Amino acid sequence: ILSFSHRVDSVSLQCLCCFRFQFIVPKKWQKNRPVCIHLAGTGDHFFWRRRTLMARPMVKEAGMASLLLESPYYGYRKPKDQLRSCLKNVSDLLVMGGALILESTVLLRWLEREGYWPLGMTGISMGGYMASLAVTNWPKPIPLIPCLSWSTASSVFTTGVLSKAVNWKELEKQYAINSVYEEEIIKLLEYCGVDSFKMASEFAKNDDSLSLSGDVRVSVGQSARAGGEAEAELVDQVLSSGTSGGGLGYLP
């Protein structure tokens, strides 16, 4: 997420810069070691919901491992002054999407290097949309199962259920008063001249920028208890108090 540090204040960056994930694997592998990366939907803080509804059935029924990536601005990565899932800035959506694309690429590269195969990605709602964006930046064939998602999220914020959550009048007022916004938007709409998929493919081939440290910290704590009761309690505490913390959970 450091690639987007210019769009994030220093306080929030401390919460966002370290991404966490849970890795649920079968006790005994079959012929291959398949892994599916699950991205979180709107309001899906921490890991317990995806672990209970998706990862555990998959590992029991199909022997498939699941890697649950926590989204920026959610769970342990939620800034202290953010209320629940309500992002403070429209630009935070750009940071969230861009960070998830890069972090998914890092994790896919790491899983591939560690010998896991085949690899796939999935997600529900916003998670499915983010998964779709992420796989378009992976230079190899990969299965994708986006659930309850679409090819764009714009209608959700302009005419859909979240349209009232954005102060469109204030944004329109700022756009009309300050010409800086218009200048920035025009730059974003201009074609950069280089195919974005080729740019991402070259980025994905760069081992230096896609390496996880060899000492990836994994700890077993209360959040790994069956049923996710402890983690569910922590969700309520964090969302109500606006604090973040905790460790990295792991389920064997």
Automatic annotation (TrEMBL):
Q: Which Gene3D superfamilies match?
A: alpha/beta hydrolase
Organism of derivation: Notothenia coriiceps
Protein encoded by which gene: LOC104944271
What InterPro entries does UniProt report for this protein, alphabetically?
AB_hydrolase_fold, ABHD18
Instruction: Give the source lineage, highest ranks first.
Output: Eukaryota, Metazoa, Chordata, Craniata, Vertebrata
Looking up PANTHER family in the UniProt record yields: PROTEIN ABHD18
What is the name of the protein in this document?
A: Uncharacterized protein C4orf29 homolog
Q: Which SUPFAM superfamilies match?
A: alpha/beta-Hydrolases
